[in-house]
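Might I ask for a little of your time on a matter of protein folding? The record follows directly beneath this note:
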Amino acid sequence: MSVVDGVVEAVIRLIQDTKPFARVTRGQLPTKGAGLACEIGPSAYTNLHWNKDSDVTLNLTLNGKHKDLQKLSNTLNDIHSLLTRRTEYPSGDAWQILDIQNGINPQQIGREASGEWLMASSLNIKFYQRGD
């Protein structure tokens, strides 16, 4: 598993620990029913060191849909609040999450013909990646 995939999977586990209304998947939202999905957005190294260690900010989109707009909004806002207020984050053999910050606060982006509301947000995952 790549470093980035390891970081994303660790963040998904943190999100699942908040007990949301649905299991978080990678990629797109499910076509039917309520759901939560996250995927990597545009990201970049913020600092690259001589030994190839790096500080990385990874943009992770977090989107959701649900027939109950209030439940959807509360869930996404709770996830953002709980993850950004943590003081301890997971690590792997070659990486350590340093901080999670709001990228874009949860916002309503539409409603499907089925009546399910859509909301989008993003989190900035700051992590250290060990070089060779």
In short: The first strand starts at residue 24 and ends at 26. The chain is about 25% helix and 45% strand. The beta strands are 24-26, 35-40, 44-48, 54-66, 95-111, 117-129.
